């Protein structure tokens, strides 16, 4: 039994590529007079909203599909939205945004923070879809890993792409690496056939997907065990924040409306993903529906119910910075986050909550 899990491999591939692409983007930005999007802002509108996605067009971007399909980006003042597919060979969100190829990018703090620290990229996280760290330790229900203590003496499958977050998890919980056997992970059959006691994966395509396929599984969210972090973050440049503030706020408003629609009309969100925006990927509708259900659990929290979708509380900003430090990525909260735009969006549009 093997389940497809694109999200697990995405992070590692992008982490490996981000240093090269960010450096290239910085050199391009240094010799340009401004972003490709900047000249499109005038009294008539904001031009095209170009968005560099972090991966192939799947359920992770369903809210943007809904916003586009329902005309929210046009209503906000954009001529259109250009959702640019990511992938293992695609330009990183950081590089696309810094070079002016995109107004906004979808990324992860694990990628953006090193780009800021190591390449001097003037980037900021302005919103976050996932309020809960999506990484989880997936195990068989017959031999569950329900707590950190349960890890001792176990064999855990970790792909190269997830080594960074795994090592941070061990450090956060003061677990000596010698107490857990870490082995290379390829696919979920390693768990279903008993080759490992657990593996590191995404909650959106983890235990729930295994259960749906007939194998009883459970999972321990890393967010519940000392590793809080936002995910599916929206990033842009400081220059855009300073000079295209209204366009960014218009984009955020439209995207929030799209995600509200996607969560309230999930059948339409799945249909748009499977039969339109992600049609070339030949997704299974049932699996996409299950993924969206799992996404909803980490998108909607008590805080977002009070403050609005895609906001980032001070506590979660601090938790994210602390998690990055466990991964040996040191950055100040103010150097990584700027939540002023999304806070203004909700202040000016109280009906969005």
Automatic annotation (TrEMBL):
Protein name: ABC transporter substrate-binding protein
Transmembrane spans: none
Domain SsuA/THI5-like, first and last residues per copy: 58-269
Record's keyword terms, sorted: Signal
Signal sequence annotation: 1-38
Biological processes, Gene Ontology terms: thiamine biosynthetic process
Entries under InterPro entries matching the protein: NMT1/THI5 (IPR027939), SsuA/THI5 (IPR015168)
Pfam family, one: NMT1
Gene3D superfamilies listed in its UniProt record: Periplasmic binding protein-like II
């Amino acid at each position: 039994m093997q389940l497809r899990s694109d999200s697990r491999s995405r992070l590692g591939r992008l982490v490996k590529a981000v240093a090269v692409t960010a450096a290239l983007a910085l050199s391009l930005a240094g010799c340009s007079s401004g972003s490709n999007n900047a000249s499109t802002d005038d009294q008539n509108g904001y031009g095209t909203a170009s968005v560099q996605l972090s991966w192939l067009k799947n359920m992770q971007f369903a809210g943007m599909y809904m916003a586009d399909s329902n005309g929210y980006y046009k209503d906000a003042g954009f001529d259109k939205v250009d959702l640019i597919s990511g992938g293992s060979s695609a330009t990183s969100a950081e590089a696309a945004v810094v070079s002016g190829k995109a107004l906004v990018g979808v990324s992860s703090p694990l990628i953006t923070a090193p780009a800021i620290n190591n390449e001097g990229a003037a980037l900021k996280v302005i919103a976050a879809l996932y309020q809960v760290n999506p990484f989880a330790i997936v195990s068989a229900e017959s031999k569950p890993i329900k707590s950190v203590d349960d890890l001792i003496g176990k064999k855990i499958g970790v792909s190269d792409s997830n080594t960074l977050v795994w090592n941070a998890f061990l450090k956060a919980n003061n677990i000596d690496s010698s107490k857990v056997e870490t082995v290379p992970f390829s696919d979920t059959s390693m768990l279903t056939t008993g080759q490992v006691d657990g593996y590191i994966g995404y909650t959106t395509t983890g235990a729930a997907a295994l259960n749906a396929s007939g194998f009883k599984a459970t999972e321990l969210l890393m967010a519940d065990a000392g590793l809080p972090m936002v995910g599916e973050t929206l990033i842009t440049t400081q220059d855009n924040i300073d000079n295209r503030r209204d366009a960014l706020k218009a984009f955020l408003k439209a995207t929030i409306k799209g995600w509200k629609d996607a969560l309230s009309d999930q059948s339409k969100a799945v249909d748009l993903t499977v039969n339109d925006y992600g049609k070339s990927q030949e997704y299974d509708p049932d699996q996409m529906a299950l993924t969206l259900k799992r996404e909803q659990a980490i998108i909607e929290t008590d805080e977002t119910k009070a403050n609005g979708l895609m906001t980032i509380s001070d506590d979660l900003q601090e938790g994210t910075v602390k998690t990055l430090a466990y991964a040996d990525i040191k950055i100040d909260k103010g150097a990584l986050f700027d939540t002023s735009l999304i806070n203004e969006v909700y202040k000016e549009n109280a009906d969005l909550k």
